[in-house]
Amino acid sequence: MLEIKNLHVEIGGEKILRGLNLSVKAGEVAAIMGPNGSGKSTLSYVLSGKEEYEITEGSISYNGEDLTELEPHERAAKGVFLAFQYPIEIPGVPTMNFLKTALNSQRIERGEDELTTPEFMRLVKAKSEGLKISIDMLKRPVNVGFSGGEKKRAEILQMALLEPALCILDETDSGLDIDALKVVSDGVNHLRSPDRAMVVITHYQRLLDHIVPDTVHVLSKGKIVRSGDKNLALELEEKGYAEFVDAA
Amino acid sequence: MNIEAARLMTTAETAFVDIFEANEDHLPGDDTVKDARIAAIAALKHAGLPTRKVEAWHYTDLRRLLNTGYKLAEPPEFDDVKADARRLQLEVDTLKLPFANGHFLKEMADELPATVRIDPIAACAFIPAPYEADPSDAIIMLNTALFSDGVCLHVAPDAKLPQPIEIDVAFSGDDKIMAATRHRVEVNAGAEATFVDRCGGPDRVQYLSCSMVELTVAENAKATWIISQEQGDLATRLARLNITLKKNAQLTVVVVNAGGNLVRQEINADIIGEGADLIIRGVNLVGGDSHVDVTTKLLHKVQNTTSTETFRNVTTGRGSGVFQGMIGVAQPAQQTDARMACNTLILSDDSGFSAKPELEIFADDVQCAHGATVTDLDATQLFYLKARGIPEDKARALLVKAFLSEIVEDLDDDALSEVLDHRIERWLEAHD
């Protein structure tokens, strides 16, 4: 589903990714682990299309299509979803309105009929259950005044609602206590399916106890330096990143 | 020795003097009013319309910008007005007092509750304007000299009006016409009332709408005054709202400027009663070639009063906007709490906004704050929306709307909030 080859990315002239290769199949949950500054967040932004990141070399193919040619909203409509490490607050835009606009924009882009308000409300209610999200919370402006846990739960709700094919979770565990981590992980696990790929970016192994990956990749200095199965994460936890960083 | 060069009158100034001279005898009012009119036109003739050199008009050079030879608007044919009645409808259930071309359409007015007394403005005791040929008071001079109609509304003590009263001032007909209306509204002790001051007219017609309102909110009374300015795209709007707040009076003023080519809205408040609270919230939508100026002057004269002023502005096209906000705190006005904020979104390279906050404080135990920001849309918010599948233009519109909606939210009357929100939305759609 996702094929990244020899990807080089710069921001403001600074080289962040230096020849990254990564392949993720449908149904696969791939964990990307790495120390601070290794390029984890850059990878997530490049996949979702943030403007200021410049691709100087390499390719990103998504379902056989050149992802770099698409605008962020087109990528979203084709099923690319980034759960932000720091979800953005948008005062003045009620969450419900935002969700409906996002979902219907994607449907229009794909040539599908828009959902009516009652249809949408039924869908939101169904998806909110289990994520401990109340309708009252959805009446508040997007992420404004939400706690760390509420923000991450809201991201997972968006994911559940938009039903993307490729989910990129950027440090979804940051700022979460154990209980919130459980709610969020359950939400993610619930969305695992044979048609859906997930790229789980994390600094700590902790999240991977809850979201058990099929593959684990170590990112260091802008490259994948080692790949393996879930046991690689345990090895990392034990030995730390130093050995891998040196290998790069 | 001062030598004053003889000043040439502009086309507009000459027209105002001509209108006065031609209509002097049938403009309404007793001798007091007539004397005030004569003094006003003489002052206008002497000082002329203000230029940039007059500080209060520094960003709006009225003498240069107003160069049309207006004629006084004729009262419209009743049938024409009736045909226009659909436009007159506000989507809220208000008690309507319609005006067309400066004349009160009594036959079409809704009946007011018994707790509200209505008189023609000319029959009310006239309050002389506090000017001495000061060119900064051009709107008062022009209005005093030429007002053709208006109402005096007295809301009885302790009356709670169940519905808003809407003063709707419309224009129809020829190019280059002008009309001035003047209203006085008194919300007496303990009363509660909401008013909508709405003014509109056709596009592609040059007309001048001049308005003056004197609003008094008495002891323990609570009022909301909403100005919905929806003038046509070539219209000029010169308006002044004079406010007096007495003890424990509460007033919320909401201004939505969503029209007109040349607009100046002045709001002057005298806060003369302890415990009085004034809230002013405004949205200025400045697009096309328009110039929109809101100038406020709030004077805290006694102790323990509060004022909060918040303006949100959006400029696009080649529009230029101005906000001048003066807060004055007199020496006895200890424990004043006055706050002012003016935030602007600039959406086009050719548009701009000037903000001038001013504080004049003579008391020592006060809290005054003012802030002005000018920004573009937030790039991280925009990316977040796009990453969720919302296309750029829709995402921008959503953020602009969010920036403005806060101002008109939370009015006591939900339906009114919705109508104003809708106005803003319509303007944004038209100025995409």
Describe, in plain words, how this protein is organized in 3D.
The complex is a heterodimer of chains A (248) and B (432). Chain A has 248 residues and is an alpha/beta fold. Chain A has helices at residues 40-48, 72-77, 95-109, 117-128, 135-139, 148-162, 178-190, 206-210, 230-239, 242-247; strands spanning 2-11, 14-24, 29-33, 53-62, 65-66, 80-83, 90-94, 141-142, 166-170, 197-202, 215-220, 223-228. In chain A, α6 runs parallel beside α7 (178-190). The two termini of chain A are 27 Å apart. The mean pLDDT of chain A is 92. Chain B is α/β, with parallel strands linked by helices and 432 residues long. Helices cover 22% and strands 38% of the residues of chain B. Chain B is built from nine helices and 21 strands. In chain B, the strands form two sheets. In chain B, strands 1, 4, 5, 6, 8, 10, 12, 14, 16, 18 and 20 form an eleven-stranded mixed β-sheet that branches. Chain B has a ten-stranded mixed β-sheet with strand order 3-2-7-9-11-13-15-17-19-21, with helices on one face. In chain B, a hairpin with a 2-residue loop joins β2 and β3. Chain B is globular, with a radius of gyration of 21 Å. The model of chain B has no long low-confidence stretch (mean pLDDT 91). Chains A and B meet through α2, β7 and α3 of A and α7 and α8 of B.
Provide the low-confidence segments of chain A as ranges: none
Rounded mean pLDDT score of chain A: 92
Number of helices of chain A: 10
> Could you give a short account of the major beta sheet of chain B?
11 strands, mixed
What is the helix/strand order of chain B? HHHEHHEEEHEEEEEEEEEEEEEEEEEHHH
* Biggest interface pair, counts: A-B, 29 and 22 residues
Biggest beta sheet attributes of chain A: 6 strands, mixed
Q: What is the string of helix and strand elements of chain A?
A: EEEHEEHEEHHHEHEHEHEEHH
Number of strands of chain A: 12
Class from secondary-structure proportions of chain A: alpha/beta
Distance between the termini of chain A: 27 Å
